[in-house]
Write a structure and sequence with these properties.
By secondary structure, the protein is of the alpha/beta class. It is built from 9 helices and 6 strands. The protein has helices at about 10-25, 80-85, 90-100, 115-125, 140-150, 170-175, 180-185, 210-215, 215-220, and strands spanning about 30-35, 50-55, 75-80, 100-110, 155-160, 195-200. One of its GO terms (biological process) is methylation. This is SAM-dependent methyltransferase.
């Protein structure tokens, strides 16, 4: 996917996702945040949590066996990580394990029910030409992902679609169709090429006053994980 992000549609998608995540994480508070996948997206740059990790740069780990204690993270960001995972269900369950009650999860995905997804599927059926989107991975539908989150006791707090321009390859043509973004978000919002979901982990019956009581201890003790000091310099 890294090579595809250097193409005109890839750069446009990355720009849209960077804007969404910058706004979303700026006011999310806590102590420990983790991004899994897609280092081209600086997903935690506007976040102010004291401990922030990017898997693959700040620590090395298997995404389905994270080196964090259960209920130890306040924020996990998954930019297209579920699509590229060997088993998306296993990864999502592992993320649910390491998140604290009321912790936040942010997911970016490519929408198979979009013009970009349609072009990709037609190319696969015809078995000719270069795929428009990255060939690896399994794109997960928006409503399908919401069902998975609900089964794991996540509540979706915010969700939006974006990137309504046709599946074009050149910068010039992508710019010419810029006007479609405004029309698409108004008239066919769920057909954007990409989606953003922000969800919160709910633990029914747990009293938030108990979480607040342990906040000072959590601030002093980071999760047990091998890493460098990069996150404290950001």
């Amino acid at each position: 996917m890294a090579a595809w992000l250097q193409t005109p549609p890839g750069r446009f998608l990355l720009e849209w996702e960077q804007a969404q995540v910058d706004a979303a994480v700026a006011d999310l508070f806590g102590f420990h945040a983790l991004q899994l996948g897609m280092p081209e997206l600086d997903g935690l740059r506007t976040n102010r949590m004291p401990h922030r990790w990017l898997a693959g740069r700040d620590l090395c780990c298997d995404f389905d066996a994270l080196p964090f204690e259960s209920a130890s993270l306040d924020l996990v960001l998954l930019p297209h990580a579920l699509e590229l995972a060997d088993d998306a269900h296993v990864l999502l369950r592992e993320v649910e394990r390491v998140l604290r009650p009321e912790g936040r999860l942010i997911v970016f995905g490519l929408n198979p029910a979009s013009l970009w997804g349609l072009r990709q599927n037609l190319g696969r059926l015809r078995r000719r030409g270069e795929p428009y989107l990255p060939s690896e991975g399994d794109f997960i539908g928006y409503w399908r992902l919401r069902d998975w989150l609900k089964l794991l006791s996540f509540d979706v707090e915010a969700a939006r679609f974006g990137v309504y321009r046709p599946p074009l390859r050149s910068d010039a043509w992508m710019q010419r169709w810029q006007w479609v973004d405004g029309v698409g978000s108004r008239w066919w919002p769920v057909l954007g090429a990409a989606y953003f979901i922000q969800a919160v982990k709910r633990v029914h019956g747990m009293r938030l006053i108990g979480l607040a009581k342990n906040a000072r201890a959590a601030a002093k003790t980071a999760p047990a994980v091998a890493l460098n000091n990069h996150q404290n310099k950001r």
